[in-house]
Every structure is written in structure tokens, then in C-alpha cells.
Amino acid sequence: MNAFLRDPVVVTPADALAQRPEHAHRQIAAGQAPETLVLAHAPRLRDALVAATGAARAPFDVAAAELHLAGGVGVCWPGVGGPAAALVLEKCIAAGTRRVVSVGFGGGLVPGTRAGDVCLALEAVPDDGVTPHYLAPGHRPQADGRESAALAAALAPERRGTVWSTAAPYRETRDAVAAHRASGVLAVDMETAAVLAVAAYRGVPASAVLVITDVLGDAGWRPCAPGAVDGVVARVAKGIAQHARARS
């Protein structure tokens, strides 16, 4: 492990939880987090998961994000990007979360990918600002094998493999896309690497899945039509809800 990963930090997530009364009365406290946290990286995914789980709005927030609870399962849209996801995940782990499922939208890279394909992320190529603070240089964050197998059984994904997580979606250059496609990277998103890195650093098993909503190929960018993946979103939400309840 790199020396910087052993270097003591100034503020821990537990320290932040302890400041709850000073920060806001609606902030999560130790022991209030769900055992299984589903991080939904778009409001549409969150809404579908809330409906599928029957979760109700919690009387407290996590950072600036709303949390919905159904027994031992929680659903949260942390906001856009890896930093927001990492902040929420860190606080939830400190408050009691012991398992995380990440679900987002992604852009397909490999030939034959179509909008609506479900991609199980087994590892991520980090191109974000969060992962280097949790893993040594050159390491790719990995999803938990057991959790990924259980999630795959619930979702029957069309594709499984590596995704690329970037913090700059409008700087996905043609050369970068071509290079990742040539190395077999399935899709690109903004959050998977950060979630897997934080979870690995904290010793919490994590799995991740993407619903493909657009394709980046030799012909350029091909976004899907409005509503084209609504049925897939509903199916994925139902499968994740069943998976999360079974694991909690």
C-alpha cells in the first residue's frame, strides 16, 4: 500500500457524523444507515427503485442527498459524479451500511452494444478524481465477486466486464474512446470507479451495473430516443430490489 494511504487523515466520516447536531438536524446519525445501500446515479433510476422497493423518505439526509428506506434497504441519488457518490457512501458506511449496489446509466463502447443493454461492471478503469485517493496508482477498483454473481443472477445482464469512469464526460476524446474500445472496455460512466474504490478501501462488498443509454462508436455519438429504455429501467429496478432484500 502506498505511504499516502497510511498517512492519517484530518477528518474521518465518523467525525463528520459526530458533528450532526451542529451541521443540521436532518443529517444521518450512527446506526441509522441501511444495511444495503443502493446508489442510483440518476433521478429516474432512484424513482424506479423507490417504487420497486416500496421505500419511504427517511426523516434525515446523507450530506445533501435524500435517503429512502425499506427495511434494511436504502435508495439514494447522491448527485452527479464520483465525488458526490463517495461522500454519501463514506457517511453511510460510517453510519452502518455493510453492502452497496451501484446502478447508473452508461455509454456503450464495444461493437454491437445497443441502448437498453445491461452491463455488469466487474472492474473500472479510473479516470476520475476520487479513486487515486483510495487506491494506489495503477490499481483498478474491483467489484466483489460474490455480490456481483448474485446481482447477475437477478438481472441476467447482456454484458459483463470492465467500464471506464471519467470525471469529464465532455472530454471523452475519439482517441480515448477508440483506445478503451480496443482494450475491451464495455462502457463509460462517471461514478462506478469511485464507488468501487471507496467500498474496497472501507472493506464493504460492492457490485455495480449500468444501463446503456447511448453508444460512442466510429460513427460518433448515438443517444437513445426518449423513453427507449424505460422498460429496461423498470426491470433492472425490480431485479435490484429483489437482490437487495435477499442480501439484507
Descriptive account of the structure:
By secondary structure, this protein is of the alpha/beta class. It has one domain (3-247): 3-Layer(aba) Sandwich (Rossmann fold). It contains 9 helices and 10 strands. A 5-stranded mixed beta barrel has the order 5-8-7-6-9, surrounded by 4 helices. Strand 9 and strand 10 (220-223) form a beta hairpin. The radius of gyration is 17 Å and the shape is globular. The mean pLDDT is 93.
List the helices and strands and how they pair.
Layout: H1 3-6, H2 13-18, H3 20-23, E1 36-40, H4 43-53, E2 56-62, E3 65-70, E4 73-76, H5 82-94, E5 99-108, E6 118-127, H6 145-155, E7 159-166, H7 174-182, E8 187-189, H8 192-202, E9 206-217, E10 220-223, H9 230-247
Parallel strand pairs: 1-4, 1-5, 5-9, 6-7, 7-8
Antiparallel strand pairs: 2-3, 3-4, 5-8, 6-9, 9-10
Helix coverage percent: 25-40%
Mean pLDDT: 93
What is the C-level CATH assignment?
Alpha Beta
CATH topology: Rossmann fold
The topology string of helices and strands comes to HHHEHEEEHEEHEHEHEEH
Low-confidence stretches: none
Biggest β-sheet: strands ordered side by side in the sheet = 5-8-7-6-9
The total domain count is: 1
By CATH, the architecture is named 3-Layer(aba) Sandwich
- Beta content: 25-35%
CATH superfamily: Nucleoside phosphorylase domain
How many helical stretches?
9
